[in-house]
Amino acid sequence: MFFLAAEGGETSHNPIVPVWQELVVGGVAFAVLCFVLMKFVFPRMEQTFQARVDAIEGGIKRAEAAQAEANQLLEQYRAQLAEARTDAAKIRDDARADAEGIRQDVLAKAREESDRIIAAGKEQLAAERATIVRELRTEVGTIAVDLASKIVGESLADEARRKGTVDRFLSNLESTGAR
Amino acid sequence: MFGQANVLAQGEAAFPPSVEDFYLPSIVPWGAENSYWFTKITAMVWLAVGLLIIFFLVTYRKPQLVPTKKQWLAESIYGFVRNNIAVDMIGHRGVAFAPYFTTLFCFILLTNFFAIVPGLQISPNSHIAFPAFLAVISYVMFIWVGIRHHGAGKFFKNSLIPPAPWYILPLLIPIELFSTFIVRPFSLAVRLFANMFAGHMLLLVFTLGGFAMLNANVWLAPVSLLSWLMTVALTFLEFLVICLQAYVFTVLTASYVQGALADEH
């Protein structure tokens, strides 16, 4: 303004008409700016953005994979645990059943044994009793004959009837005893 | 702002400010009139280009997956334009345009921002040459993208013939031609230029007006003070306009590209 004032300002400008020198300067300057920024800066920013997206998405993908694996493992463990529980219950039941069976067996055997012992005792008793009876019968016969010989005064021992007499006597005795 | 500095130095204000206040003398050669190769304006354009290149190259020299603060800042700018403008407007195909849109957005934002940086205090975009150049790029880009995507015939058919009854077409086709292929570059360029021009003019009016009143009558000093306070307030408004216009320019470019890529009218 100083200069314009000093020189009278006789040159008049129309603000709507571009100055061609400024067009050239502006064009060159802006072209330089575009060249540098669009070639060296913004494509690298795009790359960085892409790398960042990849990093984040890769992280998410890895996390998802880990999550899936963890879930799968959990399922597996749960299944195994359930299986183990079933097994344990089955083993317990089996053991209980076995124990019951063994108890029954032992009881049966014991009962059988006791029956056997009792039976054997009875048998032995019967045998002994038979022996005793037989011996007694012989002895009683002998004694009776002896006594009768002494009373009668004659030996009946040799007599053929002797056996019959004693037997008849004993039979009578038994029958009266039984009655 | 040379003019203002000189005004301050001289204690004299040429009021009201004129269009000539936007055309600063040349730096090389020093003080020459009508020499535009190296003025404050072109210097600021180069400054903006240099700052942006340095900022992005430094912050993105060694990009890391987990960004540093600076890297995060650079990525946020790109991510904002990429996701909120390119992808929002165009869809997934917009990613391919995001680098250009970001460059465009940063360039306009920074050159606009010079309008309120102390010492610079004028935006190169208040000279129509720069918005015009950017608008021409957008214009050529959306037409080229459309022709490459659809083929020339289908693109112009899509753009010019709206789905309307045949008897209304003679009216609609000229309107479509006018609005799509003639008005668009001008509206883009003029919108940005006029906003920055008007913003600078407003700041000039209130700043210089304060001096003018002070010089006219010392008793007007309180009013001068009010005028300068208005300058401060308008600077905040200007900041809003700066961001908004950078955004609008980029969004409109994206919208034109989207329209060119759209399958139906």
From TrEMBL, chain A:
Keywords linked to the UniProt accession: ATP synthesis, Cell membrane, CF(0), Coiled coil, Hydrogen ion transport, Hydrolase, Ion transport, Membrane, Transmembrane, Transmembrane helix, Transport
Task: Name where it's found.
Answer: Cell membrane
Q: Name one GO cellular component term.
A: plasma membrane
Q: Which InterPro entries match?
A: ATP_synth_B-like_membr_sf, ATP_synth_b/b'su_bac/chlpt, ATP_synth_F0_bsu_bac, ATP_synthase_B_chain
Task: Show the Gene3D superfamilies listed in the entry.
Answer: F1F0 ATP synthase subunit B, membrane domain (1.20.5.620)
The UniProt GO MF terms for this protein read: hydrolase activity; proton-transporting ATP synthase activity, rotational mechanism; proton-transporting ATPase activity, rotational mechanism
How does this chain sit within the bilayer?
A: Single-pass membrane protein
Coiled coil (UniProt feature) = 56-94
User: What transmembrane ranges does the database entry give?
Assistant: 23-42
Per its database record, what is this protein's job? Component of the F(0) channel, it forms part of the peripheral stalk, linking F(1) to F(0). F(1)F(0) ATP synthase produces ATP from ADP in the presence of a proton or sodium gradient. F-type ATPases consist of two structural domains, F(1) containing the extramembraneous catalytic core and F(0) containing the membrane proton channel, linked together by a central stalk and a peripheral stalk. During catalysis, ATP synthesis in the catalytic domain of F(1) is coupled via a rotary mechanism of the central stalk subunits to proton translocation.
> Hey, which family's this protein in?
Belongs to the ATPase B chain family.
The record's annotation in NCBIfam families points to: ATP_synt_b, PRK05759.1-3
Describe its assembly: F-type ATPases have 2 components, F(1) - the catalytic core - and F(0) - the membrane proton channel. F(1) has five subunits: alpha(3), beta(3), gamma(1), delta(1), epsilon(1). F(0) has three main subunits: a(1), b(2) and c(10-14). The alpha and beta chains form an alternating ring which encloses part of the gamma chain. F(1) is attached to F(0) by a central stalk formed by the gamma and epsilon chains, while a peripheral stalk is formed by the delta and b chains.
State what protein this is by name: ATP synthase subunit b
What gene does this protein come from?
atpF
From TrEMBL, chain B:
Q: What is its main location?
A: membrane
Where is this protein found? Cell membrane; Membrane
Membrane-protein topology: Multi-pass membrane protein
Top-level taxon in the UniProt lineage? Bacteria
Q: Which SUPFAM superfamilies match?
A: F1F0 ATP synthase subunit A (SSF81336)
The protein's UniProt keywords, in alphabetical order, are:
ATP synthesis, Cell membrane, CF(0), Hydrogen ion transport, Hydrolase, Ion transport, Membrane, Transmembrane, Transmembrane helix, Transport
One Pfam family matching this protein = ATP-synt_A
**Is Repressor set as a keyword in this record?**
no
Gene Ontology annotations for the cellular component aspect, listed alphabetically = plasma membrane; proton-transporting ATP synthase complex
Q: Which GO terms describe its molecular function?
A: hydrolase activity; proton-transporting ATP synthase activity, rotational mechanism
| Transmembrane regions listed in the UniProt entry | 37-60, 97-116, 128-147, 167-186, 192-214, 226-248
Q: Which family does it belong to?
A: Belongs to the ATPase A chain family.
Q: Which PANTHER family match?
A: ATP SYNTHASE SUBUNIT A
NCBIfam families in the record? ATP_synt_6_or_A
Per the entry, what this protein does is:
Key component of the proton channel; it plays a direct role in the translocation of protons across the membrane.
Name the chain's protein: ATP synthase subunit a
**Origin organism of this chain?**
Micromonospora endolithica
